[in-house]
Fold:
Amino acid sequence: MALVAVGISGCGGGGETTEVAETRTEVTETHPAPPELLVSLDSLEGPQNIGLLMADQRGYFEDVGLDVSVANPLEQNRPVSYVAKGTDDFALAQQPQVAIAKEKGMPIVAVGSVIPHPTDAMIWLKRSKIDGIADLKGKTIAVPGIPYQERMLWNLLAEAGLSRGDVQVESVAYEVVSKLLDGSADAIFGVSWNLEGAELESLGLEPVITRVKDLGAPDYEQLVVIAPTEMVADNPEVVRDFMSAMARGTEAAVGHPEAAVKAIVKAPGPDLAQTRKAMEAQVRATLPLLSTSGYMDPDRAEGLVEWMDEEGLIESRPPASSLFTNDFH
Structure:
């Protein structure tokens, strides 16, 4: 590119010489424009996707020759559907979502782990006087709206002896915490103990947090990077470069928590209603959970698919090996 710049300045703006034109052609062919990639986050910008944010803001994607645009999902199920359609090149999604997508034959595959263990939880406030899951009878539970989480909720409630008629479930997208605080929801589910739970604790509201593993769910990858199977097969170098840049971003965040907080605040769509104190609490709780290797455990995937089949969360069991690939780690 320096040769091109010198050639242009030497022309005095009066048109290119043949030599300069040939130089530009040679450079363009040697260094093609970086691939333009569209990426959907799993939700609003936060500590759970900080590796991607740091890689984007610090130019780590550009360092490996990638042009990445990051978008917030307006709908909770956007990441999977957009990658399956080929609208997005990468996205962050929960592993149970991937299992459901594979059951339906969607052409996606997980290419790296972001958070390798479940953080989903049921949360209510101590002041609500709810002592256990059975006490949710006649109550309202707010959920973000990710389909598998609502299905999981009904199964977990059934194990506590509650039927669908016993509980009112409302899908409220990103307003789960506000619904809990204003009293329009008695409990929230499908949120994370390290995000919403940490936020509520930072506000001194004494949340009662029950993790899904304590409710009978298996171990699984809470958050993974997904990509179209066609791109993984045809352009593995793009996937490898993307994951290496994201891993670099994750390592930077883990090593510099204060920089992670600043990156979230700097992002174009953070929750501005959230206090700095709450954000810092979420970062402290989440950074130790992040995967810096991206490796996904095959036994965890097998256990998840088996459990979802047994619980009726899927109608047929896709091969666990079809959910992911560890070729890029």
Remarks:
- Residues 236-255 form the longest helix (20 residues).
- The CA atoms of residues 116 and 221 lie 4 Å apart.
- Residues 1-31 have pLDDT under 50 and may be disordered.
